# Entry
Amino acid sequence: MAGNLKDKEAYQRLNYLHQAAHCVLAQNTSNDALARFYSFTQRTIAKRLVLRQDPSVKRTLCKKCCSLLIPGVTATCRQRRKGRRTRFTVVRCLSCGQTKSFLNDPGHCLWVDKPEAQLENQVQPGERSYLIILSSVITASREVGAAEASLC
Amino acid sequence: MWVNLFVALILENKSKKEAEAFAHAFIAGSMKGTRAGSAEETLARKAVVLEYSREKQLGRSRRRSSKRRSQCGKPLSAGEKRRLKVFDIKPEHQRYELFLPLHDLWKQYIMSICNGLRPGSSPQLVQQKLLKADFHGAILTVVRSKCPSYVGTTGILVQEFKHIFKLITKEDRLKVIPKNNSVFAVEVNGFVSHIYGSKFEYRASERSAKKFKVKGSIDL
Ligand SMILES: [Zn+2]
# Structure
């Protein structure tokens, strides 16, 4: 884990809130209000302290109502086509109807993964790996959603 | 059958009862146009297409002019949030045992913050950490208050707002307790810490950026 990460406590708090939202939803899938409250708090803290969250975390939050998007439980996940080749994964939030679409491009590389992003922002190499650890902690609860999505 | 299939699919590391409850809630939520309670009967007889339905869609039923706004993904305004009751916990979810896993998670979180919380660690250090920590999921007790009927209330903190704590008690009741004029005790592994509510009147998110001053004695 990162040794001297500046906002370690804040990151731990964000991590906890994200896990808490998953935990609440895993208890009862219709209790989205509380999960939304935790995700909302998480986002507000990140905004206030100007912390960048990992895209894998950010993509599970609804931009409009701050719901936690779990395919099959609080969101639908569909493949859409535009033109001949281009296909999108469209995630629709079930509480407010807001959609997110992601281009299906196997060659796509996230900006944070690119080497020039690391150099420009002077990000310590430990920071990114720390965030990955955070997001891997929650994969257990995310598998719940994946199992159901395969059924729908 | 159906339910068992779900249970098998979902959670290996959870107890069977929890998984069953989860599966039932999920199926009930996914079946369109069936009466509550009849889901079991319907499933027993024939194949059903699982579809999503929710009683009320946030932001959908509103007037037409808001359509453009809903497409561009602007966050809900404070008024909209109030109208749609986005953060209100429904009465059927106000059950103590639903929040026990959250409390376990919280204990782990506090442990990781305080590096294991050994008995030898200095109280000042732990309190410094607790000040910036998150309290959702903690078990709070009202120790002192200007209003005597609050004293002794114990429960899991589910929501923290600017001026109030929402606790859920063992009797499955949601208690709303004002922070002002109250002292709360939070217990972590035998380490009891007191929170002066009057000095804590910030939103849950504001506290992480806030600087607290050390003071000698504090009035209620
Ligand atoms: Zn949404």
